[in-house]
Automatic annotation (TrEMBL):
It comes from the Eukaryota. Its main location: mitochondrion. Pfam families: TRM5-TYW2_MTfase (PF02475), TYW2_N_2 (PF25133). It is found in: Mitochondrion matrix; Nucleus; Cytoplasm. Its EC number is 2.1.1.228. InterPro entries: MeTrfase_TRM5/TYW2 (IPR030382), SAM-dependent_MTases_sf (IPR029063), TRM5-TYW2-like_MTfase (IPR056743), TRM5/TYW2-like_N (IPR056744), tRNA_Gua_MeTrfase_euk (IPR025792). Belongs to the class I-like SAM-binding methyltransferase superfamily. TRM5/TYW2 family. Belongs to the TRM5 / TYW2 family. This is tRNA (guanine(37)-N1)-methyltransferase. GO terms for cellular component: mitochondrial matrix; nucleus. Residues 497-508 have a biased composition (Basic and acidic residues). It comes from Aquila chrysaetos chrysaetos. The gene is TRMT5. Keywords: Cytoplasm, Methyltransferase, Mitochondrion, Nucleus, S-adenosyl-L-methionine, Transferase, tRNA processing.
Amino acid sequence: MPMQTGSAVSRTLWRFGYSARLLKTNRFRTAASNTSFPAVWMLSAQYSGRIPGLFVVVKKNRFFTMPETVEDKANLELYSPHPEVRGMTLLNREAFKRTVAVPVLKVKKEIVNTLLKSLKHTVLQRPGLKRVVEDPEDEDSRLVILDPHKIPEFSLGESEQEVLKQLNVHPEVSKYNLELTYENFKLEEILRAVLPEGQEVTSGFSRVGHIAHLNLRDHQLPYRHLIGQVIIDKNPGITCVVNKTSIIDSTYRNFQMEVLAGESNLVTKVKENNIAYELDFSKVYWNPRLSTEHGRIVELLKPGDVLFDVFAGIGPFAIPAAKKKCHVFANDLNPESYNWLLHNCKLNKVDNKIKAFNMDGRDFLLGPVREELSKELQLLKEEQKTSFHIVMNLPALAIEFLDVFRHLLAGEPCSTAGLPTVHCYGFSKHDDPAKDIQERAEASLGTSLDGRCSTYLVRNVAPNKEMLCISFQIPADVLYKRPCPDEANPASKRLRTSKDFSEEKLLS
Ligand SMILES: C[S@@+](CC[C@H](N)C(=O)[O-])C[C@H]1O[C@@H](n2cnc3c(N)ncnc32)[C@H](O)[C@@H]1O
Protein backbone atom coordinates (compact mmCIF):
# COMPACT_ATOMS: atom_id res chain seq x y z
CA MET A 1 0.00 0.00 0.00
CA PRO A 2 1.44 3.39 -0.90
CA MET A 3 2.38 5.67 1.99
CA GLN A 4 0.14 8.65 2.52
CA THR A 5 1.86 12.00 2.39
CA GLY A 6 1.29 14.54 5.15
CA SER A 7 -1.12 16.49 3.00
CA ALA A 8 -2.99 13.36 1.98
CA VAL A 9 -3.35 12.48 5.66
CA SER A 10 -4.73 15.88 6.60
CA ARG A 11 -7.08 15.75 3.63
CA THR A 12 -8.28 12.34 4.77
CA LEU A 13 -8.81 13.63 8.31
CA TRP A 14 -10.76 16.54 6.91
CA ARG A 15 -12.92 14.18 4.99
CA PHE A 16 -13.67 12.18 8.10
CA GLY A 17 -14.91 15.28 9.88
CA TYR A 18 -11.89 16.47 11.83
CA SER A 19 -12.41 20.01 10.64
CA ALA A 20 -14.52 21.95 13.09
CA ARG A 21 -15.98 23.81 10.16
CA LEU A 22 -17.26 20.75 8.39
CA LEU A 23 -20.89 20.29 9.26
CA LYS A 24 -21.89 17.40 7.09
CA THR A 25 -20.52 15.32 4.26
CA ASN A 26 -22.46 13.99 1.34
CA ARG A 27 -20.03 11.34 0.25
CA PHE A 28 -21.00 7.91 -0.85
CA ARG A 29 -18.57 5.13 -1.57
CA THR A 30 -19.26 1.80 -3.06
CA ALA A 31 -17.24 -1.09 -1.73
CA ALA A 32 -15.73 -3.03 -4.56
CA SER A 33 -15.22 -6.69 -3.92
CA ASN A 34 -12.04 -8.40 -5.01
CA THR A 35 -13.35 -11.87 -4.50
CA SER A 36 -12.81 -14.00 -7.55
CA PHE A 37 -14.79 -17.06 -8.43
CA PRO A 38 -13.63 -20.33 -9.93
CA ALA A 39 -14.98 -20.70 -13.42
CA VAL A 40 -13.15 -23.84 -14.48
CA TRP A 41 -16.23 -25.96 -14.71
CA MET A 42 -18.02 -23.58 -16.97
CA LEU A 43 -18.35 -24.78 -20.49
CA SER A 44 -18.89 -22.86 -23.60
CA ALA A 45 -20.74 -25.53 -25.53
CA GLN A 46 -20.76 -23.32 -28.56
CA TYR A 47 -17.17 -24.30 -29.26
CA SER A 48 -17.97 -27.98 -29.02
CA GLY A 49 -20.71 -27.49 -31.59
CA ARG A 50 -23.45 -28.60 -29.20
CA ILE A 51 -26.89 -27.16 -29.47
CA PRO A 52 -28.77 -26.02 -26.38
CA GLY A 53 -30.28 -28.91 -24.45
CA LEU A 54 -29.62 -31.51 -21.83
CA PHE A 55 -26.39 -33.37 -22.45
CA VAL A 56 -24.55 -34.67 -19.40
CA VAL A 57 -25.74 -36.16 -16.18
CA VAL A 58 -23.42 -35.60 -13.28
CA LYS A 59 -23.89 -37.56 -10.11
CA LYS A 60 -22.01 -36.26 -7.13
CA ASN A 61 -22.47 -36.94 -3.50
CA ARG A 62 -19.89 -34.52 -2.19
CA PHE A 63 -21.21 -31.71 -0.02
CA PHE A 64 -19.94 -28.20 -0.27
CA THR A 65 -20.07 -25.16 1.88
CA MET A 66 -21.41 -22.58 -0.50
CA PRO A 67 -19.07 -19.73 -1.27
CA GLU A 68 -20.58 -16.30 -0.76
CA THR A 69 -22.09 -15.15 -4.02
CA VAL A 70 -20.32 -12.12 -5.36
CA GLU A 71 -22.65 -10.76 -8.00
CA ASP A 72 -20.33 -8.56 -9.98
CA LYS A 73 -17.21 -10.63 -10.54
CA ALA A 74 -18.86 -14.03 -10.69
CA ASN A 75 -21.50 -12.86 -13.11
CA LEU A 76 -18.92 -11.23 -15.29
CA GLU A 77 -17.18 -14.56 -15.72
CA LEU A 78 -20.22 -16.69 -16.42
CA TYR A 79 -22.27 -14.19 -18.30
CA SER A 80 -19.70 -12.80 -20.63
CA PRO A 81 -20.65 -12.47 -24.28
CA HIS A 82 -18.94 -14.30 -27.12
CA PRO A 83 -15.20 -13.40 -27.12
CA GLU A 84 -15.32 -12.45 -30.80
CA VAL A 85 -17.10 -9.19 -29.95
CA ARG A 86 -13.85 -7.76 -28.58
CA GLY A 87 -12.93 -4.64 -30.56
CA MET A 88 -16.38 -4.25 -32.19
CA THR A 89 -17.15 -0.62 -33.02
CA LEU A 90 -20.38 -1.08 -34.97
CA LEU A 91 -22.97 -2.83 -32.85
CA ASN A 92 -23.88 -6.29 -34.13
CA ARG A 93 -26.27 -7.73 -31.55
CA GLU A 94 -26.23 -11.23 -33.12
CA ALA A 95 -22.51 -11.62 -32.45
CA PHE A 96 -23.09 -11.61 -28.68
CA LYS A 97 -24.86 -14.99 -28.70
CA ARG A 98 -23.19 -17.67 -26.68
CA THR A 99 -24.12 -20.92 -25.06
CA VAL A 100 -23.08 -21.80 -21.54
CA ALA A 101 -23.56 -24.93 -19.51
CA VAL A 102 -25.75 -24.49 -16.46
CA PRO A 103 -27.01 -26.98 -13.86
CA VAL A 104 -30.63 -28.16 -14.06
CA LEU A 105 -32.91 -30.36 -11.99
CA LYS A 106 -35.44 -32.61 -13.68
CA VAL A 107 -38.76 -32.50 -11.81
CA LYS A 108 -42.37 -33.49 -12.41
CA LYS A 109 -44.26 -30.47 -13.68
CA GLU A 110 -46.78 -30.58 -10.78
CA ILE A 111 -44.15 -29.72 -8.21
CA VAL A 112 -42.30 -27.04 -10.19
CA ASN A 113 -43.87 -24.14 -8.27
CA THR A 114 -43.23 -25.71 -4.87
CA LEU A 115 -39.64 -26.39 -5.83
CA LEU A 116 -39.13 -22.84 -7.09
CA LYS A 117 -40.33 -21.53 -3.73
CA SER A 118 -38.26 -23.93 -1.66
CA LEU A 119 -35.09 -23.42 -3.68
CA LYS A 120 -35.61 -19.74 -4.48
CA HIS A 121 -32.04 -18.83 -3.50
CA THR A 122 -30.57 -21.57 -5.66
CA VAL A 123 -32.64 -21.13 -8.80
CA LEU A 124 -31.27 -18.97 -11.64
CA GLN A 125 -32.38 -15.35 -11.27
CA ARG A 126 -31.53 -13.18 -14.19
CA PRO A 127 -33.70 -10.76 -16.12
CA GLY A 128 -34.79 -12.09 -19.49
CA LEU A 129 -33.91 -15.71 -18.76
CA LYS A 130 -36.43 -18.46 -18.07
CA ARG A 131 -35.97 -20.43 -14.87
CA VAL A 132 -38.01 -23.40 -16.08
CA VAL A 133 -37.79 -25.01 -19.52
CA GLU A 134 -39.43 -27.98 -21.25
CA ASP A 135 -37.74 -31.33 -20.89
CA PRO A 136 -37.06 -32.52 -24.47
CA GLU A 137 -37.13 -36.12 -23.30
CA ASP A 138 -40.25 -36.13 -21.15
CA GLU A 139 -43.31 -33.97 -21.61
CA ASP A 140 -44.47 -34.56 -18.01
CA SER A 141 -41.25 -33.15 -16.60
CA ARG A 142 -39.64 -29.77 -16.56
CA LEU A 143 -36.03 -28.66 -16.15
CA VAL A 144 -35.48 -26.11 -13.40
CA ILE A 145 -32.35 -24.06 -14.10
CA LEU A 146 -30.13 -23.51 -11.09
CA ASP A 147 -27.70 -20.70 -10.53
CA PRO A 148 -24.27 -22.11 -11.44
CA HIS A 149 -22.63 -19.97 -8.78
CA LYS A 150 -24.73 -21.62 -6.09
CA ILE A 151 -24.02 -25.15 -7.35
CA PRO A 152 -20.26 -25.30 -7.71
CA GLU A 153 -19.09 -28.22 -9.76
CA PHE A 154 -22.71 -29.26 -10.22
CA SER A 155 -22.89 -30.52 -6.64
CA LEU A 156 -25.95 -29.87 -4.56
CA GLY A 157 -25.38 -28.59 -1.07
CA GLU A 158 -26.73 -30.24 2.04
CA SER A 159 -29.72 -27.92 2.36
CA GLU A 160 -30.75 -28.42 -1.28
CA GLN A 161 -30.45 -32.18 -0.85
CA GLU A 162 -32.74 -31.94 2.15
CA VAL A 163 -35.36 -29.93 0.23
CA LEU A 164 -35.32 -32.42 -2.63
CA LYS A 165 -35.67 -35.33 -0.23
CA GLN A 166 -38.79 -33.76 1.28
CA LEU A 167 -40.27 -33.17 -2.17
CA ASN A 168 -39.36 -36.64 -3.24
CA VAL A 169 -37.20 -35.37 -6.12
CA HIS A 170 -34.23 -37.36 -7.30
CA PRO A 171 -31.15 -35.21 -6.44
CA GLU A 172 -29.54 -35.49 -9.82
CA VAL A 173 -28.03 -32.43 -11.43
CA SER A 174 -27.68 -32.31 -15.19
CA LYS A 175 -25.95 -29.89 -17.48
CA TYR A 176 -28.05 -27.81 -19.80
CA ASN A 177 -26.85 -25.69 -22.69
CA LEU A 178 -28.36 -22.29 -22.09
CA GLU A 179 -28.26 -19.82 -24.94
CA LEU A 180 -27.49 -16.25 -23.91
CA THR A 181 -28.26 -13.44 -26.33
CA TYR A 182 -27.50 -9.71 -26.41
CA GLU A 183 -30.76 -9.13 -24.50
CA ASN A 184 -29.55 -11.27 -21.58
CA PHE A 185 -26.32 -9.40 -21.00
CA LYS A 186 -26.03 -6.35 -18.82
CA LEU A 187 -24.58 -3.05 -20.01
CA GLU A 188 -21.33 -3.53 -18.16
CA GLU A 189 -20.89 -7.11 -19.38
CA ILE A 190 -21.32 -5.99 -22.98
CA LEU A 191 -18.89 -3.10 -22.70
CA ARG A 192 -16.34 -5.21 -20.84
CA ALA A 193 -16.46 -7.77 -23.63
CA VAL A 194 -16.08 -5.16 -26.38
CA LEU A 195 -13.56 -2.66 -25.03
CA PRO A 196 -9.85 -3.47 -24.87
CA GLU A 197 -9.04 -5.95 -22.13
CA GLY A 198 -7.56 -4.51 -18.96
CA GLN A 199 -8.77 -0.96 -19.66
CA GLU A 200 -11.40 0.83 -17.67
CA VAL A 201 -14.98 0.26 -18.82
CA THR A 202 -17.22 3.15 -17.95
CA SER A 203 -20.86 2.31 -17.95
CA GLY A 204 -21.72 5.18 -15.59
CA PHE A 205 -23.52 8.23 -16.86
CA SER A 206 -25.67 11.03 -15.54
CA ARG A 207 -29.23 11.10 -16.66
CA VAL A 208 -31.01 14.32 -17.54
CA GLY A 209 -34.54 13.48 -18.66
CA HIS A 210 -34.30 11.30 -21.76
CA ILE A 211 -30.60 12.14 -22.18
CA ALA A 212 -27.67 10.06 -20.90
CA HIS A 213 -24.61 12.17 -20.47
CA LEU A 214 -21.14 10.60 -20.63
CA ASN A 215 -17.66 11.84 -20.10
CA LEU A 216 -15.62 9.27 -22.03
CA ARG A 217 -11.88 8.73 -21.78
CA ASP A 218 -9.62 8.70 -24.84
CA HIS A 219 -9.38 4.89 -25.05
CA GLN A 220 -13.18 4.66 -25.11
CA LEU A 221 -13.69 7.13 -27.96
CA PRO A 222 -13.39 4.62 -30.85
CA TYR A 223 -16.31 2.72 -29.26
CA ARG A 224 -18.41 5.78 -28.43
CA HIS A 225 -21.28 5.15 -30.85
CA LEU A 226 -21.55 1.52 -29.77
CA ILE A 227 -21.47 2.57 -26.08
CA GLY A 228 -24.24 5.08 -26.78
CA GLN A 229 -26.43 2.52 -28.51
CA VAL A 230 -25.98 -0.10 -25.76
CA ILE A 231 -26.93 2.50 -23.13
CA ILE A 232 -30.14 3.21 -25.05
CA ASP A 233 -30.87 -0.53 -25.41
CA LYS A 234 -30.35 -1.25 -21.73
CA ASN A 235 -32.03 1.79 -20.16
CA PRO A 236 -35.72 2.26 -20.86
CA GLY A 237 -36.55 5.95 -21.19
CA ILE A 238 -33.14 7.00 -22.49
CA THR A 239 -33.42 7.93 -26.16
CA CYS A 240 -30.37 10.15 -26.62
CA VAL A 241 -26.76 9.70 -25.49
CA VAL A 242 -24.26 12.55 -25.51
CA ASN A 243 -20.59 12.77 -24.71
CA LYS A 244 -18.98 15.87 -23.28
CA THR A 245 -16.41 17.11 -25.79
CA SER A 246 -14.95 20.05 -23.86
CA ILE A 247 -14.30 20.78 -20.22
CA ILE A 248 -16.87 22.99 -18.58
CA ASP A 249 -15.10 26.32 -18.83
CA SER A 250 -17.53 28.46 -20.75
CA THR A 251 -18.97 31.46 -18.98
CA TYR A 252 -22.39 29.88 -18.92
CA ARG A 253 -21.14 26.58 -17.46
CA ASN A 254 -22.65 24.51 -20.24
CA PHE A 255 -20.38 22.37 -22.42
CA GLN A 256 -20.04 21.21 -25.98
CA MET A 257 -21.32 17.73 -26.63
CA GLU A 258 -21.55 15.15 -29.36
CA VAL A 259 -24.68 13.08 -29.83
CA LEU A 260 -23.42 9.46 -29.86
CA ALA A 261 -26.67 7.60 -30.43
CA GLY A 262 -30.41 8.14 -30.61
CA GLU A 263 -32.41 11.24 -31.40
CA SER A 264 -30.64 14.62 -31.54
CA ASN A 265 -33.18 16.28 -29.29
CA LEU A 266 -31.59 18.00 -26.35
CA VAL A 267 -34.69 19.74 -25.04
CA THR A 268 -35.78 17.67 -22.09
CA LYS A 269 -37.86 17.51 -18.93
CA VAL A 270 -36.52 16.72 -15.48
CA LYS A 271 -37.99 16.50 -12.03
CA GLU A 272 -36.06 17.60 -8.98
CA ASN A 273 -37.46 17.59 -5.44
CA ASN A 274 -40.93 17.19 -6.92
CA ILE A 275 -40.65 20.21 -9.20
CA ALA A 276 -40.64 19.89 -12.99
CA TYR A 277 -38.20 21.80 -15.17
CA GLU A 278 -37.73 21.96 -18.92
CA LEU A 279 -34.41 22.87 -20.49
CA ASP A 280 -32.16 22.63 -23.50
CA PHE A 281 -29.25 20.58 -22.16
CA SER A 282 -26.91 21.87 -24.87
CA LYS A 283 -27.48 25.52 -23.93
CA VAL A 284 -27.93 25.78 -20.16
CA TYR A 285 -26.39 24.38 -17.00
CA TRP A 286 -28.12 21.45 -15.33
CA ASN A 287 -26.53 19.05 -12.87
CA PRO A 288 -28.67 16.27 -11.38
CA ARG A 289 -26.08 15.84 -8.62
CA LEU A 290 -27.10 19.14 -7.00
CA SER A 291 -30.65 18.20 -6.06
CA THR A 292 -29.79 17.58 -2.39
CA GLU A 293 -27.99 20.89 -2.17
CA HIS A 294 -30.86 22.78 -3.77
CA GLY A 295 -33.19 21.12 -1.25
CA ARG A 296 -30.89 21.91 1.67
CA ILE A 297 -30.82 25.64 0.95
CA VAL A 298 -34.57 25.86 0.29
CA GLU A 299 -35.15 24.11 3.64
CA LEU A 300 -33.44 27.04 5.37
CA LEU A 301 -35.99 29.51 3.99
CA LYS A 302 -39.27 30.48 5.62
CA PRO A 303 -42.38 31.77 3.86
CA GLY A 304 -42.01 35.54 3.50
CA ASP A 305 -38.18 35.44 3.33
CA VAL A 306 -36.43 37.14 0.45
CA LEU A 307 -34.08 35.16 -1.81
CA PHE A 308 -31.63 36.74 -4.23
CA ASP A 309 -30.25 34.08 -6.59
CA VAL A 310 -27.26 35.66 -8.33
CA PHE A 311 -26.38 32.75 -10.68
CA ALA A 312 -29.83 31.22 -10.95
CA GLY A 313 -29.57 28.98 -14.02
CA ILE A 314 -33.04 27.71 -14.90
CA GLY A 315 -34.27 28.15 -11.33
CA PRO A 316 -33.59 25.11 -9.07
CA PHE A 317 -33.21 27.35 -5.97
CA ALA A 318 -35.53 30.13 -7.12
CA ILE A 319 -38.59 28.12 -8.14
CA PRO A 320 -38.89 25.93 -5.02
CA ALA A 321 -38.28 29.04 -2.88
CA ALA A 322 -41.10 30.86 -4.67
CA LYS A 323 -43.31 27.80 -4.20
CA LYS A 324 -42.56 28.16 -0.49
CA LYS A 325 -43.94 31.69 -0.66
CA CYS A 326 -40.61 33.50 -0.55
CA HIS A 327 -40.05 36.67 -2.56
CA VAL A 328 -37.47 35.78 -5.18
CA PHE A 329 -35.11 37.79 -7.35
CA ALA A 330 -33.34 35.46 -9.80
CA ASN A 331 -30.62 36.37 -12.25
CA ASP A 332 -28.52 34.66 -14.93
CA LEU A 333 -26.16 36.13 -17.51
CA ASN A 334 -26.88 33.43 -20.08
CA PRO A 335 -29.86 34.60 -22.17
CA GLU A 336 -30.81 30.95 -22.76
CA SER A 337 -30.87 30.25 -18.99
CA TYR A 338 -32.89 33.42 -18.44
CA ASN A 339 -35.45 32.32 -21.05
CA TRP A 340 -35.71 28.80 -19.61
CA LEU A 341 -35.99 30.35 -16.13
CA LEU A 342 -38.98 32.41 -17.31
CA HIS A 343 -40.41 29.31 -18.99
CA ASN A 344 -40.05 27.22 -15.81
CA CYS A 345 -41.54 29.96 -13.65
CA LYS A 346 -44.64 29.81 -15.85
CA LEU A 347 -44.58 26.00 -15.93
CA ASN A 348 -44.62 25.96 -12.12
CA LYS A 349 -47.07 28.87 -11.82
CA VAL A 350 -44.71 31.09 -9.84
CA ASP A 351 -44.11 33.75 -12.50
CA ASN A 352 -45.81 36.33 -10.28
CA LYS A 353 -43.52 35.54 -7.34
CA ILE A 354 -40.14 35.72 -9.12
CA LYS A 355 -38.50 38.77 -10.62
CA ALA A 356 -36.07 37.52 -13.25
CA PHE A 357 -32.99 39.38 -14.53
CA ASN A 358 -30.52 38.75 -17.34
CA MET A 359 -27.36 40.55 -16.27
CA ASP A 360 -23.88 40.03 -14.91
CA GLY A 361 -23.96 38.91 -11.26
CA ARG A 362 -21.98 41.95 -10.12
CA ASP A 363 -24.44 44.34 -11.79
CA PHE A 364 -27.32 42.39 -10.30
CA LEU A 365 -25.85 42.79 -6.79
CA LEU A 366 -25.00 46.45 -7.29
CA GLY A 367 -28.38 47.21 -8.90
CA PRO A 368 -31.58 45.28 -8.07
CA VAL A 369 -30.20 43.59 -4.91
CA ARG A 370 -28.82 46.80 -3.44
CA GLU A 371 -32.02 48.67 -4.25
CA GLU A 372 -34.27 46.01 -2.72
CA LEU A 373 -32.14 45.61 0.40
CA SER A 374 -32.00 49.33 1.12
CA LYS A 375 -35.76 49.61 0.67
CA GLU A 376 -36.61 46.52 2.74
CA LEU A 377 -34.06 47.00 5.52
CA GLN A 378 -35.33 50.50 6.20
CA LEU A 379 -38.84 49.13 6.71
CA LEU A 380 -37.67 46.23 8.82
CA LYS A 381 -38.64 46.31 12.46
CA GLU A 382 -36.40 44.74 15.09
CA GLU A 383 -38.89 42.00 15.90
CA GLN A 384 -39.60 41.25 12.26
CA LYS A 385 -38.76 37.71 11.26
CA THR A 386 -38.02 38.16 7.55
CA SER A 387 -34.62 36.85 6.55
CA PHE A 388 -32.68 37.82 3.44
CA HIS A 389 -30.67 35.12 1.66
CA ILE A 390 -28.25 35.57 -1.21
CA VAL A 391 -27.34 32.38 -3.09
CA MET A 392 -24.22 32.43 -5.25
CA ASN A 393 -23.75 29.12 -7.06
CA LEU A 394 -20.95 29.69 -9.53
CA PRO A 395 -18.29 27.69 -7.70
CA ALA A 396 -15.40 28.55 -10.02
CA LEU A 397 -15.83 32.31 -9.52
CA ALA A 398 -18.46 33.28 -6.95
CA ILE A 399 -16.02 34.00 -4.10
CA GLU A 400 -14.45 36.70 -6.26
CA PHE A 401 -17.82 38.47 -6.35
CA LEU A 402 -17.99 38.83 -2.56
CA ASP A 403 -16.12 42.14 -2.58
CA VAL A 404 -19.34 43.68 -3.96
CA PHE A 405 -20.76 43.55 -0.43
CA ARG A 406 -18.08 45.90 0.89
CA HIS A 407 -19.95 49.10 1.75
CA LEU A 408 -22.86 48.11 -0.51
CA LEU A 409 -25.25 49.95 1.84
CA ALA A 410 -22.86 52.66 3.06
CA GLY A 411 -24.80 55.68 4.26
CA GLU A 412 -28.06 53.75 4.68
CA PRO A 413 -29.73 53.46 8.11
CA CYS A 414 -28.05 50.54 9.78
CA SER A 415 -29.74 47.55 11.45
CA THR A 416 -28.39 44.14 12.39
CA ALA A 417 -31.92 42.69 12.34
CA GLY A 418 -31.99 41.97 8.65
CA LEU A 419 -28.37 41.41 7.70
CA PRO A 420 -28.51 39.16 4.65
CA THR A 421 -27.14 35.63 4.81
CA VAL A 422 -24.90 34.70 1.91
CA HIS A 423 -24.54 31.09 0.69
CA CYS A 424 -21.53 31.19 -1.59
CA TYR A 425 -20.12 28.16 -3.43
CA GLY A 426 -16.51 27.41 -4.23
CA PHE A 427 -14.25 24.62 -5.41
CA SER A 428 -11.18 23.68 -3.41
CA LYS A 429 -8.22 21.42 -4.04
CA HIS A 430 -6.69 22.38 -0.71
CA ASP A 431 -5.78 19.93 2.07
CA ASP A 432 -8.27 21.69 4.33
CA PRO A 433 -10.96 22.84 1.90
CA ALA A 434 -13.12 24.51 4.58
CA LYS A 435 -10.21 26.66 5.77
CA ASP A 436 -9.28 27.47 2.18
CA ILE A 437 -12.80 28.61 1.28
CA GLN A 438 -13.11 30.67 4.45
CA GLU A 439 -9.76 32.40 3.86
CA ARG A 440 -10.66 33.22 0.26
CA ALA A 441 -14.07 34.59 1.30
CA GLU A 442 -12.40 36.68 4.02
CA ALA A 443 -9.90 38.11 1.54
CA SER A 444 -12.71 39.09 -0.81
CA LEU A 445 -14.87 40.61 1.95
CA GLY A 446 -11.91 42.27 3.72
CA THR A 447 -12.88 40.95 7.15
CA SER A 448 -12.49 37.89 9.35
CA LEU A 449 -15.32 35.37 9.42
CA ASP A 450 -13.91 33.42 12.35
CA GLY A 451 -16.80 32.11 14.43
CA ARG A 452 -19.25 33.79 12.07
CA CYS A 453 -19.57 31.32 9.22
CA SER A 454 -20.23 27.68 8.49
CA THR A 455 -18.91 25.59 5.64
CA TYR A 456 -20.64 22.62 4.13
CA LEU A 457 -19.17 19.98 1.87
CA VAL A 458 -21.53 19.74 -1.10
CA ARG A 459 -19.83 17.05 -3.18
CA ASN A 460 -16.60 15.62 -4.37
CA VAL A 461 -16.26 16.87 -7.94
CA ALA A 462 -13.09 15.00 -8.93
CA PRO A 463 -10.25 13.29 -7.09
CA ASN A 464 -8.92 15.97 -4.72
CA LYS A 465 -11.48 18.57 -5.77
CA GLU A 466 -14.36 19.44 -3.48
CA MET A 467 -17.35 21.73 -3.92
CA LEU A 468 -18.25 23.62 -0.74
CA CYS A 469 -20.77 26.16 0.40
CA ILE A 470 -19.81 28.86 2.89
CA SER A 471 -22.70 30.58 4.68
CA PHE A 472 -22.45 33.76 6.74
CA GLN A 473 -24.37 36.89 7.55
CA ILE A 474 -22.67 39.86 5.96
CA PRO A 475 -21.00 41.70 8.86
CA ALA A 476 -22.54 45.15 9.38
CA ASP A 477 -19.17 46.90 9.13
CA VAL A 478 -18.69 45.31 5.69
CA LEU A 479 -22.17 46.13 4.42
CA TYR A 480 -22.63 49.57 6.01
CA LYS A 481 -18.97 50.59 6.38
CA ARG A 482 -19.62 51.02 10.09
CA PRO A 483 -20.90 48.93 13.00
CA CYS A 484 -24.62 49.24 13.65
CA PRO A 485 -25.69 51.05 16.84
CA ASP A 486 -27.56 47.93 18.02
CA GLU A 487 -24.39 45.87 17.78
CA ALA A 488 -23.77 46.59 21.44
CA ASN A 489 -26.41 43.93 22.00
CA PRO A 490 -24.39 40.70 21.90
CA ALA A 491 -27.46 38.63 20.92
CA SER A 492 -27.88 40.56 17.71
CA LYS A 493 -24.16 40.39 17.02
CA ARG A 494 -23.93 36.64 16.85
CA LEU A 495 -24.22 35.35 13.33
CA ARG A 496 -26.48 32.46 12.55
CA THR A 497 -25.03 29.20 11.40
CA SER A 498 -26.64 26.31 9.53
CA LYS A 499 -27.07 24.66 12.94
CA ASP A 500 -29.13 27.63 14.09
CA PHE A 501 -31.26 27.40 10.97
CA SER A 502 -31.90 23.70 11.57
CA GLU A 503 -32.72 24.32 15.23
CA GLU A 504 -35.08 27.15 14.31
CA LYS A 505 -36.76 24.83 11.88
CA LEU A 506 -37.15 22.17 14.54
CA LEU A 507 -38.65 24.72 16.91
CA SER A 508 -41.05 26.22 14.35
C1 LIG B 1 -23.06 26.49 -11.83
S1 LIG B 1 -24.40 27.20 -12.66
C2 LIG B 1 -25.62 27.16 -11.38
C3 LIG B 1 -27.01 27.26 -11.88
C4 LIG B 1 -28.08 27.00 -10.83
N1 LIG B 1 -28.00 27.96 -9.76
C5 LIG B 1 -27.96 25.59 -10.28
O1 LIG B 1 -27.73 25.44 -9.08
O2 LIG B 1 -28.11 24.61 -11.03
C6 LIG B 1 -23.90 28.87 -12.76
C7 LIG B 1 -24.82 29.77 -13.56
O3 LIG B 1 -24.23 31.08 -13.54
C8 LIG B 1 -24.40 31.69 -14.80
N2 LIG B 1 -23.34 32.70 -14.90
C9 LIG B 1 -22.05 32.54 -15.25
N3 LIG B 1 -21.38 33.69 -15.15
C10 LIG B 1 -22.26 34.61 -14.70
C11 LIG B 1 -22.16 35.96 -14.37
N4 LIG B 1 -21.01 36.62 -14.47
N5 LIG B 1 -23.26 36.58 -13.92
C12 LIG B 1 -24.44 35.93 -13.80
N6 LIG B 1 -24.60 34.64 -14.11
C13 LIG B 1 -23.52 33.98 -14.55
C14 LIG B 1 -24.30 30.56 -15.79
O4 LIG B 1 -24.98 30.89 -16.99
C15 LIG B 1 -24.96 29.40 -15.03
O5 LIG B 1 -26.33 29.30 -15.34
